[in-house]
Design goal:
The structure holds two protein chains of two kinds.
Chain A lengths: L1 H7 L3 H11 L3 H10 L5 H24 L2 H6 L40 H7 L6 H23 L1 H15 L3 H17 L5 H14 L6 H12 L2 H4 L5 H25 L11 H12 L5 E5 L5 E5 L2 H14 L3 H14 L4 H15 L2 H14 L4 H14 L2 H14 L4 H13 L3 H14 L3 H14 L2 H13 L6 H7 L5 H6 L7
Antiparallel strand pairs in A: 1-2
Helix pairs in contact in A: 2-4, 8-9, 9-10, 10-11, 11-13, 14-15, 15-16, 16-17, 17-18, 17-19, 18-19, 19-20, 19-21, 20-21, 21-22, 21-23, 22-23, 23-24
Chain B lengths: L1 H10 L1 H18 L3 E3 L13 E2 L5 H32 L6 H14 L6 H11 L6 H22 L2 H18 L2 H11 L1
Antiparallel strand pairs in B: 1-2
Classes of the chains: A mainly alpha, B mainly alpha.
Chain lengths: 499, 187
């Protein structure tokens, strides 16, 4: 037994401990003794012999176990390896370098039990905590900054929504509201300026006066250096285009106001031709454009604008065939500038009987800007002339839903209802229109409807009002009042309107 | 590739520091021994800490998703100012707007756990002992961190975070009606 103990390098205590763990405990032995009272002496001897045998077997087992098995079963904890009591370097903890590596976590585990416990509570770095505090503070500032600007962003979001629905005027109003708010905080909202420049160019809410607005927005957003960058080349080209258009218009005005042509009578064919030729010669000229940095550039005049000016002159001179020709040229030269030609050309094509072409223009106008009456008016007129009064009313109602303050749409509705013989409803519609705005065309429609309803007093009232406002009754309405044409003929034949 | 990875970590320094910090916090909560808590090292573990292998589902989930969630929330907070000012309204002249934008991109680019942690997540949740229902529930969580984990190895997450910053206002705008209603109810 002593030899076995030496081989294992175990102390007596350790050996006993090993035996104890696997052998019968004292309590068990006592209980065995207690039992002996019930047995005969022989039985007692047998029992004791069995216990002794069990003890010998367990002791043998413990003695037979290798050191590794005893360590593995947790019976002993080995502290020292060799006779000197020093742990080999490769077994030392990587962290403290003093204790043995804890092999419970694998043969290749590099740390001791104490260091492992300490690693679970690895201290957080001061720099990390300071960075966290700083980032949280900055994040709070950011959120507060956003919250204070929330209403502006919400306005822009609504504007984006309108734009996606092609309600460009509504979008423009909201964008301008946001720009004003941001300008007052000295924030240049570049994206909004550029976006609104495009919208104004597409819609020209104030006709040719909007050209200056487009240029102003582009030059407010982009510096001269930025305008020279490739990513803004589109806006540079747009700016040049609107400045050219503007300068071309100025050339036209200069001619009209010049000494030579100011007194020309456009009703006189010779003088009309002379004026027309002079305006046409602008195409061969160069016009000067001035940028925001005061640089001047000479560029060819915008031909589409020159033809548009000729159209305006021809229309004013009541030379409708000429005006129609010029408008078609404008359409060919600048098809993207719907605001220049689409409505006028659409109405003209409708009056000429080319429904298909009229519908093309109506569709383009309607899809371009649902905040503009032109598409609804043209569609309503087309349906009325085709004899589909119900659809004509629908189109007018569609327009009224978007533009509830628009008198022209109420007039369209009244005309469509009158075509269907529904004069009571037509009166309601035209009266609503008159509440919004009063002008000659709406008065004349009201006059026809009141006449059809037999309201003579009201007819006289309208005539007096028009006279007081120096509004002329058209020849067509005069003929109607004389009984030469019917109300239905007014609204569905020829021009399809009161003039 | 490592140089590119480390470069993007340096460019997004604050996000990198905070990701390592959150990982350490998660390990501390779970009692996972941390071997090296230095966030910056010139290796694929830049922005991550070294810790013992995770063998527990809850620990794995926390170590992967706590840094992701915290950095993502902080990123959104910064982008509320940065992205809205610079991208949405085009205010390019205010320096603080650019700072917020950069911070937002930095944090968004540092949401993903280390690939070792992602694989650990996979081992813990997708083994034969895990119930099918748990696997199904964890699938989107795993898909996100695995997908982005792969992309981060090639520094693609940096590009994604820039794109995220650009589209952030459009995403956040969808919540505006709800925010308006809540503010009206409170006001």
């Amino acid at each position: 037994m002593d030899d076995n103990k030496k081989d294992l390098n175990l102390s007596n205590d350790e050996l006993s401990a090993a035996a104890d763990q696997t052998a019968v405990t004292e309590d068990n032995f006592s209980s065995a003794i207690d039992k002996s009272q019930e047995y005969s002496d022989k039985a007692l001897d047998d029992e004791l012999e069995k216990l002794a045998e069990t003890f010998r077997q367990e002791l043998k087992k413990a003695q037979a176990m290798t050191e590794e098995e005893l360590i593995k079963n947790g019976i002993i904890i080995q502290q020292y390896e060799d006779d000197d009591g020093v742990i080999p370097e490769e077994e030392l903890c990587k962290c403290c370098g003093e204790q043995r590596r804890d092999k419970k976590y694998g043969e290749n585990y590099e740390y001791c039990k104490n260091c492992r416990e300490a690693m679970k509570r690895y201290p957080l770095s001061i720099s990390g905590i300071v960075t966290l505090a700083a980032m949280v503070f900055v994040a709070v500032v950011s959120v507060f900054g956003f919250a204070s600007d929330f209403s502006v962003y919400n306005t822009i979001r609504k504007a984006d929504e309108y734009l996606s629905q092609n309600k460009k005027y509504s979008a423009l109003t909201l964008y301008d509201e946001a720009i004003t708010t941001l300008d007052s905080a000295d924030i240049v909202a570049k994206r909004l300026y550029l976006k609104t420049a495009e919208i104004v160019y597409d819609t020209m809410p104030e006709s040719i006066y909007s050209l200056e607005d487009v240029s102003y927005r582009i030059e407010s957003a982009l510096s001269d250096f930025e305008l020279g960058l490739p990513i803004y080349a589109g806006y540079k080209a747009l700016n040049k285009e609107v400045l050219t258009m503007q300068s071309t218009f100025y050339e036209f005005y200069n001619i009209m106001n010049s000494e030579e042509f100011a007194d020309h009578d456009i009703k006189n064919d010779e003088q009309y031709e002379e004026l027309m030729t002079e305006i046409g010669s602008i195409i061969d000229k160069e016009v000067s454009i001035t940028y925001s940095d005061k640089t001047i550039e000479m560029v060819p005049a915008d031909e589409a604008i020159v033809r548009f000016c000729q159209y305006m002159l021809a229309y004013s001179a009541a030379k409708y065939e000429d005006s129609y020709q010029y408008m078609n040229v404008v359409y060919e030269l600048a098809p993207s500038r719907l605001w220049l030609y689409a409505y006028e050309l659409g109405i003209t094509e409708l009056q000429k009987g080319d429904i298909e072409k009229a519908e093309t223009f109506a569709n383009a106008l309607y899809n371009e800007n649902k905040d503009l009456q032109d598409g609804y008016v043209l569609y309503s007129s087309i349906e009325r002339m085709k004899g589909n009064s119900k659809k004509a009313v629908e189109w007018a109602d569609k327009g009224i839903k978007e533009l509830s303050e628009n008198a022209e749409l109420y007039r369209m509705k009244a005309m469509a209802l009158a075509t269907n013989g529904d004069y009571e409803e037509a009166k309601k519609a035209v009266d609503k229109g008159l509440e919004k705005q009063q002008y000659s065309y709406i008065y004349m429609v009201s006059l026809v409807i009141e006449n059809e309803l037999g309201n003579e007093e009201r007819v006289e009232e309208i005539k007096d009002t028009m006279e007081e406002s120096e509004l002329e009754i058209s020849d067509k309405i005069k003929e109607y009042l004389k009984g030469k044409i019917t109300a239905e003929e007014i609204f569905t034949e020829g021009t399809g309107d009161v003039e | 590739m490592t140089n590119l990875y480390v470069t993007t970590r340096v460019l997004t320094v604050f996000g990198t520091i905070m990701r390592a910090f959150w990982e350490q916090v998660a390990c501390r909560i779970c009692g996972i021994p941390v071997e090296d808590a230095r966030g910056f090292k010139v290796s694929e573990l830049c922005g991550h800490i070294e810790h013992e292998l995770i063998t527990n589902k809850k620990q794995s989930f926390l170590v992967c998703w706590l840094p992701f969630t915290m950095n993502f929330i902080l990123s959104c907070c910064f982008l509320l100012s940065g992205a809205y000012r610079v991208v949405y309204i085009g205010d390019v002249k205010t320096i603080t707007s650019w700072v917020f934008l950069w911070l937002g991109i930095s944090f968004a680019a540092n949401c993903v756990p280390s690939f070792e942690d992602v694989l650990s997540f996979k081992d813990n949740f997708y083994n034969s002992e895990t119930k099918t229902i748990v696997k199904i529930i964890m699938a989107p969580f795993f898909a996100v961190i695995y997908g982005f984990g792969v992309l981060e190895r090639y520094s693609v997450t940096f590009i994604i975070s820039v794109i995220f910053a650009i589209v952030f206002p459009q995403i956040a705008n969808t919540f505006f009606p709800v925010v308006t209603i809540i503010s009206q109810m409170l006001g």
